[in-house]
Amino acid sequence: MSHAKHGFPMPHRAKPITIGQAGVVDVVWFVLFVAVMGGMWWFASRIEPHYSSKDGTRFLCNGQEIVDNEPFGRRRETRVTVMPDGVLNVSQKRRLRRTNERWALVGKSPEPPKGKQIYLLQQFADGKWLPDQMSLHIPAKSRVVPVLDALLERDAPVR
Questions:
Q1: Which end of the chain is more exposed for a tag (fewer CB within 10 A), N or C?
Q2: What's the domain count of the chain?
Q3: 43 φ, ψ to 5°?
Q4: What is the pLDDT of residue 115?
């Protein structure tokens, strides 16, 4: 059956559908996605973990080892327990294991960054002082600050 013979109008061919700006929109969404992910990564790298118990003797902060008076490696999440004798039990995660070491508080930064307090620790083992040191980065308003300040005021172990 022919449309022309029976008086029916000829069917129109559909025009090809062009999406037009779909490629541009895809690029915009991709760039927006990458920008948001980059912003979240930057923001996450700026946040320092901190937790402290109510009495301020157990806390979580960032610590960085100091070897030969130079920072060594990157800052790591550090768990600290202040013992009654003034010794600090410090635990850091390295690779897949946690290291537990004994450190003593030896100083505090006279001019810390705004909103922070930085304390200096020195490691000792078997009654001997070791050359390794560590800095602890703690928020200035933390419950830990008065505990560590009081510990600094006490008599330090004899070297």
A1: N
A2: 1
A3: -65, -40
A4: 83
Q: What SS3 class is residue 66?
A: strand
CATH value at residue 119: 2.30.29
Cα gap 70→32, rounded to integer Å = 39
Q: Distance between CA 72 and CA 123 in Å, rounded?
A: 15
Question: Measured over all CA atoms, what is the biggest interatomic distance in the chain, rounded to whole angstroms?
Answer: 114
Asked if residue 12 belongs to a domain, the reply is: no
pLDDT at 17: 67
Q: How far apart are CA 99 and CA 79, in angstroms?
A: 10
CA distances from 34 to 31, 37, 45, 83 (A): 5, 5, 16, 46
Rounded to the nearest angstrom, the gap between the alpha carbon of residue 13 and the centroid of all alpha carbons in its chain is 61
pTM of the model: 0.67
d(CA 90, CA 63): 9
Place of tokens 């850091």: 92
Residue 121's domain comprises 51-153
CA 150 → CA 51, 84, 153, distances in Å? Answer: 19, 12, 5
Give me the count of residues in the chain.
159
10-residue mean pLDDT profile of the chain (159 residues): values are 65 70 82 95 81 86 80 81 87 80 86 86 78 85 87 64
Question: Has residue 115 been placed in a domain?
Answer: yes
